[in-house]
Amino acid sequence: MQISASILSLEKENITQKLYNLEVANVDYFHIDVMDGKFVKNNTSAVMKENALTLKHISQIPLDVHLMVEDIDYYINEYLDLKPKYITFHYEVNKDKEKIIEKIKYIQKYDSMAGISIKPNTEVKEILDILPYISLILVMSVEPGEGGQEFMESSIGKIKELREYIDKNNLEVQIEVDGGINNETIKLIKEAGADIAVVGSYLVKSDDYKETVKNLKQKVSCN
Ligand code: DX5
Ligand code: ZN
Hints:
CATH topology: TIM Barrel
Structural class: alpha/beta
Number of helices: 8
Bound molecules: D-xylitol-5-phosphate, zinc ion
CATH class: Alpha Beta
CATH architecture: Alpha-Beta Barrel
Number of domains: 1
Order of helices and strands: EHEHEHEHEEHEHEHH
Radius of gyration: 16 Å
Strand content: 15-25%
Largest sheet: 8 strands, parallel, barrel
Helix content: 25-40%
Shape: globular
């Protein structure tokens, strides 16, 4: 199982050093939470762009961009230049399937992989027909908008449903889970079939990133 480090709750003081420490802690991705103050209340768009640019300078670790924004096209263009591994946007912004597939194809044309994210109240059956077009499905296990919230167990059923559908249909889609992941909840999502855990405050508020990542990986490698 892979770990995508959410830097949303990282305090600004000495941030470059902290980003570097995450890099050497062996995280698999940097998860960039882009919020526009519209789709969610907080606005992180300026600070996340700055962090993403810093990361491109100091790190080889791929970026995993999570857009919590209404103007998806604008932010896709803002991040494509940085060549992220994944660019993920929210299904709930505009559920028009044709428009969604257009955006997916646009991301892919510029050599990033496209992902779709679903909020806790969105049912998996609504997005099953999009899965063949994407590389990543991001299941929110908290309401999007801020770090440090409690994991919602209702996401477990959704992860299982996705795992079953993806395997049955031989799709190459990674299941990523975002929100409230710690050394206990990571086991639950692993058992349910997740591939990537987004870990925010549990990691960035810890004293020793390397140790925390090692322990998290240990929790899910032997069961
Ligand atoms: C929430 C963000 C998450 C969040 C994860 O809107 O999408 O990525 O920062 O942080 P924790 O792990 O603290 O829930
Ligand atoms: Zn996120």
